[in-house]
UniProtKB/TrEMBL annotation:
Reaction equation(s) it catalyzes: 5-amino-1-(5-phospho-beta-D-ribosyl)imidazole + hydrogencarbonate + ATP = 5-carboxyamino-1-(5-phospho-D-ribosyl)imidazole + ADP + phosphate + 2 H(+)
Record-stated family: Belongs to the PurK/PurT family.
Function summary: Catalyzes the ATP-dependent conversion of 5-aminoimidazole ribonucleotide (AIR) and HCO(3)(-) to N5-carboxyaminoimidazole ribonucleotide (N5-CAIR).
A Pfam family hit: RS_preATP-grasp-like
GO cellular component annotations of the record: cytosol
Pathway(s) annotated for this protein in UniProt: Purine metabolism; IMP biosynthesis via de novo pathway; 5-amino-1-(5-phospho-D-ribosyl)imidazole-4-carboxylate from 5-amino-1-(5-phospho-D-ribosyl)imidazole (N5-CAIR route): step 1/2
A GO molecular function held by the record: phosphoribosylaminoimidazole carboxylase activity
Enzyme Commission (EC) number: 6.3.4.18
Protein name: N5-carboxyaminoimidazole ribonucleotide synthase
A biological process from GO: 'de novo' IMP biosynthetic process
């Protein structure tokens, strides 16, 4: 496998905040950044060395990115796999397409997870309205009906409480393609593990994070997760099994449910840096973004030790005006604004991370931060 040395160019597909933070980390260790994104003023475009403004399905643009880059990666998974195969034919794309294709489709993802002996919530496939009656008979309600392709942050999914609601939701969502009906897990915690595997097979894992969602969007991440040592070890073991079994290169975020008895179910996979890993920028010796760059470039992976407890909170569009443009930053409070030009309701505009001696103290500081900002 190649080793991509400092001074080389890393091509990033996707110009959002994940690409931006990936670029920041890459530049800190000596790389240049080329970007492909439809928006020439996206967060990553603002810091990239070269920007190709084009749609993600533009094969010529993808080929141009591959030709000016020493290695290519992506910051989000809704990229056409066929187009990425063309990138691999014309450049160095060590992550490949297989894991991406698997995680793009919920049914394929669940099948791959279960093949590796990792538990998921009970589910059924709905390909047409004719499948609704059988699903309603065999699944316990409440359940969650999800589109197989393209859903994120709660989009393309509906909680259904009976057969009538299931049929109504299926009629609406089937226009977007196949659906999966999942049993709603009665969980006590939502957690995630970010695992990184390099081109040489080296694997590291970040500490287990506890996640709180509002309206299906990540609200806060608390680290270390408030779970037992045994449950944390089991979660990391499952994440490792998935990274090895799927032959991952780069970053894989594994979202899980924890039941009251400690039983774990994998909910979703994301083959890229993840929102729940933003705390690593300040709280770990190596951030998830630097680790991803190291993995795809063939460098030794960094130390993932948690240096201090942390809480991260997303700043959405409806709260961005509560944050001053140039805040007086406390030693323990780190504000990140992504530079997005258009403010939208529930759009991720930034995040704030608080470090402290324990997670309760971090939560107190974070709550005080918002009270203070509300006064401006």
């Amino acid at each position: 496998m190649k080793i991509i040395d400092a001074g080389a160019t890393i091509g990033i597909i996707g110009g959002g905040q994940l690409g931006q933070m990936m670029a920041f980390s890459a530049k800190e260790i000596g790389y240049r950044i080329a970007l492909l994104d439809p928006d020439g003023d996206s967060p990553c475009a603002q810091v990239a060395d070269e920007v190709i403004v084009a749609p993600y399905h533009d094969e010529q643009a993808m080929r141009a990115l591959a030709e000016i880059s020493d290695v290519v990666t992506y910051e989000f998974e809704n990229v056409d796999a066929a187009t990425l195969r063309d990138v691999r034919a014309h450049g160095y794309f060590p992550q490949g397409v297989d894991v991406l294709e698997t995680t793009q489709h919920r049914l394929q993802e669940k099948a791959a997870i279960t093949r590796l002996g990792v538990p998921v919530a009970r589910y059924m496939t709905i390909l047409s309205v004719d499948d609704v009656a059988l699903a309603a008979t065999n699944m316990r309600f409440p359940a969650i009906l999800k589109v197989c392709l393209g859903g994120y942050d709660g989009k393309g999914q509906v909680v259904v409480h009976d057969a009538s609601a299931l049929r109504e939701a299926a009629v609406s969502l089937l226009q977007h393609g196949p659906l999966v009906l999942e049993e709603k897990v009665d969980f006590s915690k939502e957690i995630s593990v970010i695992v990184t595997r390099s081109v040489h097979g080296e694997i590291t894992m970040f500490p287990v994070a506890e996640n709180e969602h509002r309206d299906n969007i990540l609200h806060r991440t608390i680290v270390p997760a408030r779970i037992s040592t045994a449950t944390a070890a089991s979660a990391q073991a499952l994440a490792r099994r998935l990274a090895e079994g799927l032959n991952v290169v780069g970053t894989l975020a594994v979202e899980m449910f924890v039941k009251k008895d400690g039983t774990l179910y994998v909910n979703e996979l994301a083959p890229r840096p993840h929102n729940s890993g933003h705390y690593t920028i300040e709280a770990c010796k190596t951030s998830q973004f630097e680790q991803h760059i190291r993995a795809i470039c063939g460098l030794p992976l960094g130390d993932t030790t948690l240096q201090t407890p942390a809480v991260m909170e997303n700043i959405l569009g409806d709260r961005i005006y509560e944050v001053p443009e140039q805040p007086a930053r406390a030693v323990s409070t780190y504000l990140h604004l992504y530079g997005k030009k258009h403010v939208k309701y529930q759009r991720k505009m930034g995040h704030v991370t608080v470090l402290g001696n324990d997670t309760d103290g971090c939560l107190e500081i974070l709550n005080a931060f918002w009270r203070k900002k509300a006064l401006h």
